[in-house]
Amino acid sequence: MVYKDEERKRKLGKILQKIHHLIPPVDMDTYAVGDYEIRKGFLDGNEIKRLIVYLRSTGCQWMLDDENGGCAMCGHLAGTTRGRKITAEEYEKQFQTIIAQIDFSDIPMICVYNAGSFFNDNEISPEARKSIYDMINSIPQIKHVIFESRPEYITEDKLQVLTKSILGRRIEIGMGLESSDEYIRQMCLNKGFKLIEFQNAIKLLKKYDVKSLSYVLLKPPFLGESVAIDDSVNTITWAFEQGIDVISLEPISVQKNTLIHLLYSMGDYRPPWIWSVLKVMVQVHDMGLVRIGGFEFFPPPEVCTHNCSVCNEVCINAIEDYNATNDIKVIHDALDMDCINCKHKWLNELKDTVSIQEKIDSFIDKVDTVDIELLLRNDFRNYPNKLLRMGGCGIYNL
Ligand code: SF4
Predict the structure, then answer these.
(1) What is the pLDDT of residue 377?
(2) pLDDT tens across 227-277, in order?
(3) Burial of 81 by CB count in 10 Å (0-12 exposed, 13-18 middle, 19+ buried)?
């Protein structure tokens, strides 16, 4: 069937809500972080270690309150209390306990993530934020701090408190722009906020000398491989024009309990090829600082960007090398490689001419004929562990 846009949006929203209702309940200790990792990072051109703290959180308000179920690709909800407020005391205890276990003597960077917006008072109270700032400020070895938030929560008063509390460090705030194309952002991803809110947030961050980081997706749902490459390139171009400091290109991975998970289980979605990641990078490298990310999530993703077992390792190594050196030659060299096993498949997928609307409409019709609950029980047994590792999930673990 051919649907109208309002109908598409409503039907996709209903499907996403259904997916979220199927997330099984889990017991969680709200005085302990959801997870933490020590990964490679880069500071002033040098390879360093960075600590990533995934706070056990209330959950993203956009996902909890939105009638269409929040962002289509996001699987963070499953690791949260799904709306049960985490108190300041619980957040403080989580953070205190984790930093007490870490030897920061060779870890100058910390990323504090809460599966939502760090600056939304309904997700983390001002009191809890202030305690976390003070704890970070008390660790002199930390030189670089990263938080994440939707742009609408980045306000003057919050930046004032932040910059008066964490002193003499580089502070960076990541915002999920995902795509600068309004149709893709709202229809395919259900992102919600407006581009003007993103632009205003960049201006405010500049005023307070806080660095802005933007996440840009590669291959949102319902985009063919070639359209996806163009969308990432256009979005990165646009974001730099707005004055963003850093971009993290995020090839979409499959997190459980997401629209992507359902599409993948129905055989209607493949995470982007690494070839596509490389192709984006050669076009955007000269625009500014672009990292290649997409592997750091809680709960962790099941399937990440990948090519084939023959060339995965060399391509992932190229990504690692690029992140370490910012040398575009490694990306060119990898992209110029000819993998007889898979490159022709990728080139073939670049010819996909089915429109976004046609893909959405056929998905909506097909969903009516499948058992969503059964499909979401997909435990990814058929996905070879070797590929999973090489596809990025965990490959950056030290
Ligand atoms: S991507 Fe960010 S804003 Fe969107 S639902 Fe997930 S946590 Fe919320």
Answers:
(1) 84
(2) 999 999 999 999 999 999 999 999 999 888 899 999 999 999 999 999 999
(3) middle
In this structure, the residue with its CA closest to atom 6 of ligand 1 is 74
Please give the Cα distance from 191 to 62 (Å, whole number): 9
CATH code (residue 81): 3.20.20.70
Q: 3-class SS at 71?
A: coil
Query: What are the pocket residues of ligand 1 if the criterion is a CB atom closer than 6 Å to any ligand atom?
Result: 60, 62-63, 70-71, 74, 76, 115-116, 150, 176
Domain that holds residue 78: 5-390
33 found inside a domain: yes
Instruction: Work out which ligand 1 atom sits closest to the CA atom of 70.
Output: 5
| Confidence at residue 388, expressed as pLDDT on a 0 to 100 scale | 42
Ligand 1: centre distance to CA 68 (Å): 13
Give the chain's domain count. 1
Judge whether 396 lies within some domain.
no
Considering the domain boundaries, does residue 85 fall inside one? Answer: yes
Q: Closest Cα to atom 7, ligand 1: which residue?
A: 116
Reading the block at residue 197, the tokens are: 């809110």
